[in-house]
Amino acid sequence: MLEKRNPIPVGEAVRRVMEFAFEAKKEVVPLTKAHGRFLAEDIAADIDVPAFDRSPYDGFAIRSIDSKGASRDNPVIFKVVGEIGAGYVFEGTVGKQEAVRIMTGAPIPKGCDAVVMLELTQEFEENGQSFMSIKRPFEAGTNISYRGEEVRKGEALIEKGEFINPGVIALLATFGVSDVPVFRKPVVGVIATGSELVEPGEALQPGKIRNSNAYMMMAQVERAGGTAMYLGKLKDDLEECIDAVLKAMQEVDLLITTGGVSVGDFDNVPAIYEAIGAKVLFNKVAMRPGSVTTVAVKDEKLLFGLSGNPSACYVGFELFVRPILRKAFGSKRPHLKRAQAILGADFPKPNPFTRFVRGTAFHENGTLKAIPSGFDKSSAVSSLAKANAFIVLPRGSRGYEKGMQVDVLLLDDQEGSEWPWDDIVKSYKL
Ligand SMILES: Nc1nc2c(c(=O)[nH]1)N[C@H]1C(S)=C(S)[C@@H](COP(=O)(O)OP(=O)(O)OC[C@H]3O[C@@H](n4cnc5c(N)ncnc54)[C@H](O)[C@@H]3O)O[C@H]1N2
Ligand code: MOO
Ligand SMILES: [Mg+2]
């Protein structure tokens, strides 16, 4: 007999999955390999930055007191007693009416408390000795970048869980973190099920289609920060599938399958879960596409049974798998970033379930707008290419009109949200 499935709200489904969140192990990678990874430890400043008082300009370091009384009619003359470029230290102490030619980034010589920009000085030579003169006084502290003015030793810099972007790389380099503690990438097994599938390099036959989901999901795994392990495509043969899933479970941190989760005669995923003794967390979600998304757990490992329909598979991954990966990286904001946008086109289809329309979000005159990115069936693949957001349309008996305010979930963002589901769930009633 056909099993009865009870749809649960999206937020509730995500919550059930997140109960099995885990933190990934740590590893250390060289700084040159850290971009795009997630920091596994808090990093604090081990030095002041700048580490010494330094000059922000090319010019002359002087004792400000010596510039007192300088004016256009009464220029004050300094004897140039040395020159230092960045990377060198002036060894002596600068005395009365003396100046040191200094370059940007060089440490302020002992005795000096101001730097005069080169453009405000006049240089001349007398009997082989260099001099310079200035036509105005300079206060103590003029043009000095003080030690620790940017960052103080001991200050917290970057938190565990932070995405390592090029700016973070610069910070790590500044503080000498040449070996970076990062979270290991969980290994996500990817299996496509379906006797109709041929691989992208193979010729199509009548009734067959290309396996797009496996490749799409592998890219989604990588975008979320994990390592995808492709375990191949399987025919809709129960025994073969059970063996493959059991074997896969030994090799991966979590497993995603696509296809075979609905109620068709060859939809084997529910039977596979039963056969291997996996506990089903839910098998119907009040969302579209992806209502048949099924998630189970065996030995604390999550098995994601995503729909075979490409758009449904894509949405299921981003809503349920992505936050598990981000949580593994210590993120406090593991879910897709939620933002408000103005609907840029009518969406007349009413829906009994919350709909996640694949959309393109873009700024126009300072306002975030979102329009559907193409053909909007669960089976659609073409609308995925231009999708950088899901337009979230809560269930209702009427469609939505251009100009309405909607929530969007952003796909290409690293910031994420802590929990985007609260008021989305509120608008849904079972
Ligand atoms: N009587 C019912 N029929 C269906 C229901 C239902 O509730 N009652 N749910 C529909 C919904 S909603 C969806 S979504 C699909 C889910 O299907 P399955 O997850 O069981 O997936 P399959 O049957 O294996 O395939 C569905 C569709 O997707 C294509 N597919 C499968 N794998 C891939 C792949 N790797 N790459 C590209 N395309 C793939 C497959 O050929 C089918 O066309 O069920 C509805 N039916
Ligand atoms: O699971 Mo289906 O995608 O709701 O159309
Ligand atoms: Mg099916």
TrEMBL record:
MoaB/Mog domain span: 189-327
Domain of life: Bacteria
Cofactor(s) named in the record: Mg(2+)
Any single Pfam family the record assigns to this protein: MoeA_C
InterPro entries: MoaB/Mog-like_dom_sf (IPR036425), MoaB/Mog_dom (IPR001453), MoeA-like (IPR038987), MoeA_C_domain_IV (IPR005111), MoeA_C_domain_IV_sf (IPR036688), MoeA_linker/N (IPR005110), MoeA_linker/N_sf (IPR036135)
Keyword Nucleotide-binding: no
Keyword Kinase: no
Keywords: Magnesium, Metal-binding, Molybdenum, Molybdenum cofactor biosynthesis, Transferase
Gene Ontology MF annotations: metal ion binding; molybdopterin molybdotransferase activity
GO cellular component terms, A-Z: cytosol
Biological process, per Gene Ontology: Mo-molybdopterin cofactor biosynthetic process
Catalytic activity: adenylyl-molybdopterin + molybdate = Mo-molybdopterin + AMP + H(+)
Enzyme class: transferase
EC id: 2.10.1.1
Pathway where this protein functions: Cofactor biosynthesis; molybdopterin biosynthesis
Similarity field: Belongs to the MoeA family.
Functional note: Catalyzes the insertion of molybdate into adenylated molybdopterin with the concomitant release of AMP.
The protein's name in its UniProt record: Molybdopterin molybdenumtransferase
Lineage of producing organism: Bacteria, Bacillati, Bacillota, Bacilli, Bacillales
